[in-house]
Design a protein that fits this description.
Oligomer: single chain
Largest sheet: 2 strands, antiparallel
Number of strands: 8
Helix content: 40-55%
Distance between the termini: 28 Å
Order of helices and strands: HEEHEEEEHEEHH
Strand content: 5-15%
């Protein structure tokens, strides 16, 4: 035996890395897709809470209940469910997977991106709050909604879970790519 350091398995390692290289983009898309699905589910749970704030009359016809009420959430709490439209609009998408409620986030070779969110415009007003003047300006009427954060709070609360889903998914892809 010759003196020095001998490394066994280098050939197998090189073959495994080559096998992984061909599937890195697909594995990355799958990992980010799984993380998006996790966040979508957690956001929908966050938006499923009953309100604890002020009760408002509904002035529109909804399922035959013309004069029902809605109990809003307290400022600083996630929005309370009213008709479920915001909650049902939550979705996710990843580079190269068109056809969802959200557009393809772009990206390409070596640059995989993902979205999680809503296409309902009032989701932003609930997240950040709004203070606006009446459209005609001279009536002195203002509308004010204090923030009811739901999106960024949920993403922040689940940052470690998202990281674990992505790393676990990539580890699984590496294991599956091993050359036998």
């Amino acid at each position: 035996m010759e003196p020095g350091i001998h490394v066994h398995g280098v050939r197998e390692l090189m073959l495994n890395l080559q096998a992984i290289g061909a599937n890195v983009e697909r594995a990355s898309k799958d990992a980010i897709w799984k993380a998006g699905a996790l966040l979508e589910e957690r956001l929908k749970v966050k938006l499923s809470q009953a309100g604890t704030g002020k009760t408002w009359p509904k002035r529109y016809i909804k399922r035959g209940n013309r004069y029902g009420t809605h109990m809003a959430s307290e400022p600083g709490q996630p929005p309370a469910v009213d008709d479920g439209r915001l909650r049902s609009s939550i979705t996710h998408n990843v580079t190269g997977r068109p056809g969802g409620k959200l557009p393809d986030p772009g990206g390409g070779m070596g640059n995989v991106k993902g979205y999680v969110g809503t296409n309902v415009n009032y989701g932003m007003f609930l997240e950040f709050g709004v203070n606006s003047m009446h459209p005609f300006g001279n009536l002195g009427v203002t509308s004010s909604i204090e923030p009811r954060p739901w999106l960024y709070v949920t993403v922040s609360e689940n940052a470690n879970n998202v990281s674990n889903v992505i790393s676990g998914s990539l580890k699984d892809a590496i294991k599956k790519a091993k050359v036998k």
